[in-house]
Every structure is written in C-alpha cells, then in structure tokens.
C-alpha cells in the first residue's frame, strides 16, 4: 500500500511540473551533456532559460518576456555551484541592488543600479568581508572613490579618497563674448559628505592634451568660489573660440595643516560669435 502512495505522489509532481512549463528547445555540448534548455512558464507567461556548465551544474537561470528582454529574477552561478550574481530586472533593466559573490560564497560587490547604470554606492569586498573599494556614481559618472589597502610593513590600513565634481554649463552651444553660468556639484548624500569642508578653485584654459594639466597650472590663475549645499556656482566670460576646458581643484584642509587636492576638468567648444562669423 505504501508503494502505491509513493507512486501516486511522484506522478502528481511530474504532472504539476508539466502543467507549469512546456519545454521546447534544448542545446547540447559536443559531449552530449545538456548546455541549455528553454521552457515556457504557463503561470508567469514568460520564457525560462536555464544554461549549464559542461559539468552539469547550473550556470544561469532567468526569464525572458515577449520582447526578448530579461524579466524578473536573474541568477548566475560559479562553476563550483556557488551563487555568482543575483538581481531583479524589468524589461531587461536592473532597477535596484545587484549582488555579486566570490567563488567561495562571500559577498564580492553590492551595486545600486538604475536602468542598468550605477546610481549610488558601489562597494567591493575582500573575501574576508573587509571593504576593498567604495564608489559613488550618478548615471555611471564617478563622483567619489575610496580605496583601502593594507600596508604590510606597518600593518595599517591606508585610505585614499577622491572626489570628481559634476560640471555643467548653462548654455550649449557657447559663443565668444557669452557670459556662461558654471555649476559644480558633488551629489553625495548629505549624511556622508559635506562640500563645505572644501574650497573650489577653477580657471579656463585652452584644451591642450600634450601634457598633464597639473604640470602647468599656476595657482595664481585659480579663482575661489563659495559652496552651498555641496554645490558651487560662478560665471565666466568666453573670450576665445575653439577647444577650451575648465580646470578645477577641490582643496580640503586636514587638521588645519595639510591641504589635499582633487583635480578635475570639463571640456567644451566655444564658437565664434555670430557677428564674427559674418
């Protein structure tokens, strides 16, 4: 009697599985091992694709909508079977947090994404759980980075931090004799960063790429501008046509003695004024 019950139970499982999905496409390695299988999920109304390593372990598992875009849960695995990446997608785009893992199972990276672009913090970890690198980006533009390494000689952690302001102009295109508003911003969360601890200096130079800008900037050229709520604004008068760049420095006082500089540039093209063109 027990054997009959077991047989009925197994039959019900397979019957339910076949009702949930219809599998219609398979791919194989030259060895004959299964490489991929696609099934239509009758409940989710999505195609489910599962890809395998040649050793038989699952490599990827995800769903595809009618537009051939990944929809819903996405999972990728290391060849040893441990989870490699997990995220949630909508119409092929990640909007949320993506988690990546080392082969040994520990967290490797946590990334905030919006429409597949990094928006917010992206943090990388060593297998022991210590932070290796920390970034903050806006639409993939790097605003802030912090790198941590271990000094093996002194057995101390060494921290390196850099800031990269977002620079924008109020006009486009820009013409000679125009007065243009220049906007600087470091859009980090206010609870983790405050630009009021910095001074912003800038100047406008011809765009010459033959050498590093740092080697020929005269500090006397730089103009200091005030900062409010992690933002700074000023005006410039365009005096030349051609390729130009705004060269800036973020200066931070450390213990009222040392000053550290973060260097940035913004390149743009100035065109002759309409009167000069005639």
- Rounded to the nearest angstrom, the distance between the terminal CA atoms is 101 Å
Report the average pLDDT across residues.
Answer: 82
Query: What is the H/E order?
Result: HEEEEEEEEEEEEEEEEEEEEEEH
Class derived from helix and strand content: mainly beta
Unreliable stretches (pLDDT < 50, length at least 5) are 1-16, 211-216
* Integer-rounded radius of gyration: 28 Å
Global geometry:
elongated
Helices, by number, come to 2
Number of strands: 22
Largest sheet: 13 strands, antiparallel
Helix content: under 10%
This entry's quaternary arrangement is: single chain
The percent range for strand residues is: over 45%
Helix and strand layout, with pairings?
Elements lengths: L1 H19 E8 L5 E8 L4 E7 L5 E7 L5 E8 L5 E8 L2 E2 L1 E6 L5 E8 L2 E9 L5 E8 L2 E11 L4 E8 L2 E4 L4 E2 L3 E7 L12 E9 L16 E3 L1 E2 L2 E7 L4 E13 L3 E14 L2 H4 L1
Structure, described:
With about 280 residues, this protein is mostly beta strands. The protein is elongated and about 70 Å long. Strands 1, 2, 3, 4, 5, 6, 7, 8, 9, 10, 11, 12 and 13 form a 13-stranded antiparallel beta sheet that branches. Strands 15-22-21-17-18 form a five-stranded mixed beta sheet, with no helix packed on it. Strands 14-16-20-19 form a four-stranded antiparallel beta sheet, with no helix packed on it. The longest helix has 19 residues, at about 1-20. The protein has helices at about 1-20, 275, and strands spanning about 20-30, 35-40, 45-50, 60-65, 70-75, 85-90, 95, 95-100, 105-115, 115-125, 130-140, 140-150, 155-165, 165-170, 175, 180-185, 200-205, 225, 225-230, 230-235, 240-255, 260-270.
């Amino acid at each position: 009697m027990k054997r009959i019950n077991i047989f009925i139970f197994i039959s019900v499982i397979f019957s339910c599985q076949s009702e949930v999905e219809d599998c219609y496409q398979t791919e194989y390695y030259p060895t004959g091992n299964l490489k991929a299988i696609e099934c239509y999920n009758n409940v989710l109304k999505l195609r489910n694709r599962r890809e395998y390593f040649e050793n038989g372990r699952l490599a990827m598992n995800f769903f595809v909508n009618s537009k051939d875009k990944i929809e819903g849960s996405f999972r990728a695995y290391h060849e040893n079977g441990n989870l490699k990446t997990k995220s949630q997608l909508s119409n092929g785009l990640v909007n949320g947090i993506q988690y990546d893992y080392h082969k040994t199972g520990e967290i490797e990276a946590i990334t905030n994404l919006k429409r597949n672009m990094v928006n917010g913090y992206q943090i990388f970890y060593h297998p022991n759980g210590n932070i290796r690198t920390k970034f903050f980006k806006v639409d993939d533009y790097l605003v802030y980075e912090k790198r941590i390494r271990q000094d093996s000689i002194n057995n101390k952690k060494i921290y390196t931090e850099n800031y990269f302001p977002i620079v924008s102009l109020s006009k486009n295109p820009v013409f000679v004799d125009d007065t243009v508003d220049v906007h600087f911003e470091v859009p980090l969360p206010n609870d983790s960063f405050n630009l009021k601890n910095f001074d912003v200096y800038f100047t406008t130079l011809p765009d010459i790429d033959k050498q590093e800008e740092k080697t020929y900037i005269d500090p006397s050229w730089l103009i200091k501008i005030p900062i409010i709520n992690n933002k700074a604004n000023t005006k410039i008068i365009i005096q030349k046509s051609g390729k130009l760049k705004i060269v800036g420095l973020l200066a931070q006082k450390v213990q009222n003695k040392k000053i550290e500089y973060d260097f940035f540039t913004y390149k743009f093209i100035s065109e002759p004024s309409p009167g000069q063109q005639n």
